[in-house]
């Protein structure tokens, strides 16, 4: 993209409403704009990050054997009356009436709807186990939306749901999802720790939250220092082998890690004192096993092998896709701006033309842009070099190709790696080869 013709409104001033680095940087780098409290428009650069994250999440869900569906954002209240959650959910639920006075709601989560979809079509034990997921907008009328997209009211979530015939089958899917989550976070370039967690309004008795450690996080967490140095090696386990899943789950849950709601002082006391860590973290994912809570309440049963009626054992699995954008920035930024992990950067390369209007510089910059069109943001504005340097660092492209008149005359560019600040002078070919 050409920056001169893009809706990427970078700003120099620090927005006063933003309290944490990621919120400030998302506004300053022109990724999003707020349209109402906790509701954001995603501008081109922000949307590219969101899509890149969603693509990685999608690939790992597919690899875990979940099938993608897309359910509506608007749901009928009747489904929630069946499960009993219509009253229980409280004020976080945005309730809507249509012109016929029918009660609708903007979905905060989808256990009821997916259970309804399965009960309409799945009748026999032979069709299970199954898992399905979607990447879809949710609405929760948070009392205090804050920190930008981290606690929005409208937000993008990957939500998966599983149906198994028995407890053992449900546990396999739960562990498979845990492995898929660890792989997802690894590919996103962040470290998230699975911690024993409360189940909240979803209900159930087995649950883990995935927490990225950050001083600005809203969760209070307690964990064994083992999690700081362990390389989980999520890639070394076969997601289709239940022995591998068991081993992986054993490693993940072998050391103490819990959020404050589930903090267990007895177990904590058994962790060696010099290994006890206490801090703040951001909840980026949450998985639940809740048995037959919804299948029984909503009367979704299948016929078992002996003709008996079986209520499927269910679980649900969320990742905060839009929250992840903020969380990644919290985990990876410096004074100058964002430092995108290569896997999610909106643009892999920023091309900086330091002397727009100079024939030789323009020609070289256009040539480089022509070769990198799909992955580059070309700063072709008639701004001073200093402004372009600052904006490129702010936007956080993993690579910068800097083109000035002197270098261009000798066929040279400067290549800068954002994460390390390393710069070197190279020919265009060598720079392109290095970027890969
Ligand atoms: P929180 O404790 O932050 O309110 P939650 O426990 O209510 O989150 P879940 O129901 O577990 O959220 O939803 C799954 C995931 O959706 C969360 O782990 C989080 O990443 C994301 N999420 C939840 N609420 C929001 C929100 N208001 N804004 C952005 N992402 C959210
Ligand atoms: Mg919540
Ligand atoms: Mg929570
Ligand atoms: Mg949660």
From TrEMBL:
Catalyzed chemical reaction(s): tRNA(Pro) + L-proline + ATP = L-prolyl-tRNA(Pro) + AMP + diphosphate
UniProt-listed Pfam families: HGTP_anticodon, tRNA-synt_2b
GO molecular function: ATP binding; proline-tRNA ligase activity
InterPro entries the UniProt entry points to: aa-tRNA-synt_IIb, aa-tRNA-synth_II, aa-tRNA-synth_II/BPL/LPL, Anticodon-bd, Anticodon-bd_dom_sf, Pro-tRNA-ligase_IIa, Pro-tRNA-synth_IIa_bac-type, Pro-tRNA_synthetase
Domain annotation Aminoacyl-transfer RNA synthetases class-II family profile: ranges: 38-341
Gene3D superfamilies: Anticodon-binding domain, Bira Bifunctional Protein, Domain 2
GO terms, biological process: prolyl-tRNA aminoacylation
EC number per UniProt: 6.1.1.15
Subunit (UniProt): Homodimer.
Record's protein name: Proline--tRNA ligase
Naturally occurring in which organism (per UniProt): Acidisoma cellulosilyticum
Source taxonomy: Bacteria, Pseudomonadati, Pseudomonadota, Alphaproteobacteria, Acetobacterales
Gene name in the database record: proS
């Amino acid at each position: 993209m050409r920056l001169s013709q893009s809706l990427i409104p970078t700003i120099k001033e620090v927005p006063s409403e933003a309290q944490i680095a990621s919120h400030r940087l998302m506004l300053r780098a022109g990724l999003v704009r707020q349209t109402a409290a906790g509701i954001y428009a995603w501008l081109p650069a922000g949307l590219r990050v969101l899509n890149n994250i969603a693509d990685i999440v999608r690939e790992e869900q597919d690899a875990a054997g979940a099938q993608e569906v897309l359910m509506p954002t608007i749901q009928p209240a009747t489904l929630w009356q069946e499960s009993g959650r219509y009253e229980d959910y409280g004020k976080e639920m945005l309730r809507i009436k249509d012109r016929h006075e029918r009660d609708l709601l903007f979905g905060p989560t989808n256990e009821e709807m997916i259970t309804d979809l399965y009960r309409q079509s799945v009748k026999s034990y032979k069709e299970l186990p199954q898992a399905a997921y979607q990447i879809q907008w949710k609405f929760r009328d948070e009392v205090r939306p804050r920190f930008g997209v981290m606690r929005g009211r409208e937000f993008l979530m990957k939500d998966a749901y599983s149906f198994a015939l028995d407890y053992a089958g449900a546990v396999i899917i739960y562990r498979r999802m845990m492995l898929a989550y660890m792989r997802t976070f690894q590919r996103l370039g962040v470290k998230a720790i699975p911690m024993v967690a409360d189940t909240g309004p979803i209900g159930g008795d087995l649950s883990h939250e995935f927490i990225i450690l950050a001083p600005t996080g809203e969760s209070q967490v307690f964990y064994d220092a083992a999690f700081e140095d362990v390389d989980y090696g999520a890639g070394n386990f076969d997601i289709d082998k239940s022995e591998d899943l068991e081993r992986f789950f054993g490693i993940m849950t072998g050391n103490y890690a819990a959020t404050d709601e589930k903090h267990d002082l007895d177990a904590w006391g058994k962790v060696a004192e010099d290994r006890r860590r206490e801090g703040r973290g951001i909840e980026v994912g949450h998985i639940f096993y809740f048995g037959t809570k919804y299948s029984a309440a909503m009367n979704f049963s299948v016929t078992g092998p002996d003709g008996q009626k079986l209520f499927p054992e269910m679980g649900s699995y969320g990742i905060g896709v839009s929250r992840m954008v903020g969380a990644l920035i919290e985990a990876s930024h410096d004074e100058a701006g964002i430092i995108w992990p290569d896997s999610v950067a909106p643009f892999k390369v920023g091309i900086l033309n330091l002397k727009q209007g100079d024939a030789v510089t323009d020609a070289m910059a256009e040539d480089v842009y022509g070769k990198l069109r799909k992955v580059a943001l070309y700063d072709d504005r008639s701004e001073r070099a200093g402004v372009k340097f600052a904006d490129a660092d702010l936007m956080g492209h993993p690579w910068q190709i800097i083109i000035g008149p002197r270098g261009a005359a000798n066929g040279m560019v400067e290549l800068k790696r954002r994460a390390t600040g390393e710069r070197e002078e190279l020919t265009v070919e060598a720079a392109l080869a290095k970027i890969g």
